[in-house]
Amino acid sequence: MSATARGGNGTAPLVSVRNLKKEFPIKKGVFSRQVGAVKAVNDVSFHVARGETLGVVGESGCGKTTTGRTILRLLEPTSGEIYFEDRDVRALGTRDLRALRRDMQIIFQDPVSSLNPRMTVGAIVREGLTIHKLAEGAAADARVSQLLQEVGLRPEYATRYPHEFSGGQRQRIGIARALSVEPKFIVCDEPVSALDVSVQAQVINLLEDLQREHNLTYMFIAHDLSVVEHIADRVAVMYLGKIVQLATADDLYREPLMPYTQALLSAVPVADPKSRKERIILSGDVPSPASPPPGCVFHPRCHHPAKDVACTKIVPPLEEKTPGHFVHCIKQPPTTVSWEQQKEVGGVHPPERYLPLAAVHA
Amino acid sequence: MASPLLSIRDLRTYFYTESGVAKAVDGVSFDIGAGETVGIVGESGCGKSVTALSILRLIQPPGRIEAGSRIDFEGKDLVTLPDEEMRNIRGNRISMIFQEPMSALNPVFTVGDQVAEVARIHAGIGRKKSWELAVETLALTGIPAPEERAKQYPHQLSGGMRQRVLIAMALIMKPALIIADEPTTALDVTIQAQILDLLVHLQKEFGTSILMITHDLGVIAETTSRVIVMYAGEIVEEASVTELFARPHHPYTEGLMHSMPHIGHDQERLNVIPGTVPSPTNWPHGCRFRERCPYSWDLPEREHPPLYDVGAGHTSRCHLAREPQRRNHPHEPLVVQEGVGAA
Fold this sequence. Notes:
- The complex is a heterodimer.
- Chain A contains 13 helices and twelve strands.
- Chain A is an alpha/beta fold.
- In chain A, helix 5 crosses helix 6.
- Chain B is an alpha/beta fold.
- In chain B, helix 7 links the parallel strand 8 and strand 9.
- In chain B, helix 3 packs parallel to helix 6 and helix 4 crosses helix 6.
- The chains are: A alpha/beta, B alpha/beta.
């Protein structure tokens, strides 16, 4: 979608997140003493504007799913601020939190395990209506039929059970369930990753149609960069619990200033046997989030030619390189971490712009 | 091509289930030449994995390879080969790399043991020798510090490393053919890039033939030289990789290519193939893609399309080969509303 301007307009954001952290304790021994912590989300800040789709991409263990679940308080954050409209999400009591969940919904990746196999499709979709006292009796039945039709299923499917449906259809049931309470914000957690290509396209189109009709705001979490480019207005790239690049989808794919994003884009296999793409092959694996590397989290695998000791000492701020384009790298100019500061900690290569487009564009 | 390494003729693998006979693979024929990388692409349930398992004769009841199917490999028909001889082919002349690197490894043995075991069984060499060979093979797959890694257990390795171990197990006997069934589907994209590069490199180095089974057209484009597209238990199209991507003939192939979002070529709306794959217990008569096809038309008796030769070594199971002008007049497919899929 090319409506990039929709993201950054001046209206108050729907969701804003500041310095969010989520750590999972590592316990050992008979008394379960805490011996460390997995820093799943490590100090991330961003906002989601009304009506936009914020894509969040990254590889397994980067913290993208944890970020989404922490915003909904399906997981309790360790620290940081989360605001939905003007409500402080972390300060809400049980009752207020339940009320908030009417506005914030989630669609899960696995359409098999996220639907209760003992409930009919109708009961699954109707549950939210009952909990939030939105409709009862015949009115609820009518609403369920309407919701099923809206996601492209026949109303008579309400009496069937989830196992009778294909993966794509089950994902539609999950979408109908999320829509039932008329939310403003939906976290879509890898909603199409488990689906076949042709079915994936159907579900993506459906999500886009629903967004337009209901003025929905999405946080779309995925590992597939081409899907995110298609659906998102802005994209956050995560690596080891940090946002390392945040930009409009157009900027991110045209100007992947973060070296990690470059590697990620160049790794995607291109469905064109004639394309001659140089690939940036990252060596090794992602380090453990229990002991992330000091300085820039990406430095052990980074291929930026100016990488040096400074990268291992200074934690790069997520800073604005061009308007609305934030990158976590002290070697991509302009940077607020001056060359003098970098030299002080042992830096030897001044920042220089590095954008190997041959590797990124087919 | 001289006589091919593997030649499959009219392979039919049926599953006799309570709800009927599922014709998972229904008359598949193709060849793989020595040193060639052939890809099979298709979506869940198209029969690509069952084809792979049939080659290794790993089909469990209620499934069975039907009489009349032929799988000729190095002068033997694998369909009728005695079990003992078949065991000698598996892991030795033909090996397989599975999708899920965690469940394909035994958690209570070190990875070195598991790689060495393949050599102990098939080459009949001793513990010490097979261990050395295992470490050597692990090194070939780019595992750093292979001596130490060999002593570790699967859970101590990352997903990418485990996949390298599986490749080492497949490679240790220097087989003539490696079947890779979605070898990178469970991996992250940067690790996938490492593993695909490794497979391409090993294929060049040892001249092993590879049968690459995947749902990802990107993986196909980057690793194979010839492609087979499967749909509903059949081959619907076959061509060289450059020919297939330049001139997809079958509407299903065309639909698959158009329904993928491509980086750098954003379109407002993705094209979709409407409807779902039909049930394998009840394939439609005639063309199995007919109801989802934007070009379909009524033929007398719903004739089942043969694989038409459409030139340049390219075959397609589509009647458009007879009436190509119909491609200029697409219509709404017959199914718009989704039907209930297979239970």
